[in-house]
């Protein structure tokens, strides 16, 4: 089954073709991504209306490009998958409208994909993928969640952020220190030059039981440290390192607790912050210490992309799940409400 995947939940236009007839990482026939960073940079954040309009401009050319790279004609597709939520409603509607139109015109099944399920399943596209049950850390600009995965489509929330997501905290901390948009990757790069231990910030909510996160207080600590410093280049790097160390250590502590709570030793990490090199190294260290395993998608599939949507959609289409002809999106969508793939197969 050759499935076209379309991702337009926020400010990146992603398109991919996933072929279930191929094995391992080779099943991803082609994928392309257009980022709107330059468009939104002057505003210091995503402007929803501009994001929607840019998806309108870029989506069809990107579909043509991806199909050409995959060596496929549009009538060789077997299904269409698209992000239906969560996300910006206007941006979601662009992708959903194009996907449903293609499916109707080609008489193909189409399936709505949950954006975070796409992230969660992205590591399963790699060679030697993990098998459920496992624990997933979904860590991005909009979400920080720990999820127990009993089977594909069967998810139980273990803990989540009570305020800022980890990626959001990275971006906001970078902004208060004057780093350019998007600040998170800039801060992580700057942290590589910082001295470990020069600034030590708290590891939020690790001094009490539970698996929830909170990063707003950490952000305030950085603000106070920055305000009271000389604000020189070396100090900026040291503060960035202290902040990153605090986030990484907090995530690692909570992940280990989640593995213990779930009685599992396999951790899957996905989302934009999952590309952070220090986080990857720390979680790898933790997994090796306990004789377990940690799995990541390749770095280019950590951020929003069409490949994860094509893959997640292919799994559900193979199980017999598809949508009616309506164009529907869900800007807010609880992943626990998704049907298990086995149940979709039986329906």
TrEMBL record:
Which keywords appear in this protein's UniProt record, sorted alphabetically?
A: Acyltransferase, Cytoplasm, Iron, Metal-binding, Transferase, tRNA processing
Which organism is the protein's source? Pseudoxanthomonas wuyuanensis
Q: Where in the cell is it found?
A: Cytoplasm
Q: Which gene encodes it?
A: tsaD
Q: What residues bind substrate, as annotated?
A: 138-142, 171, 184, 276
| PANTHER family linked | TRNA N6-ADENOSINE THREONYLCARBAMOYLTRANSFERASE, TRNA N6-ADENOSINE THREONYLCARBAMOYLTRANSFERASE, MITOCHONDRIAL
Positions contributing to Fe cation binding: 115, 119, 304
Q: What is this protein called?
A: tRNA N6-adenosine threonylcarbamoyltransferase
Could you give the cofactor binding note from the entry?
A: Binds 1 Fe(2+) ion per subunit.
Major localization class: cytoplasm
Family, similarity comment: Belongs to the KAE1 / TsaD family.
GO MF terms on file?
iron ion binding; tRNA N(6)-L-threonylcarbamoyladenine synthase activity
Q: Where does the Gcp-like domain lie?
A: 29-311
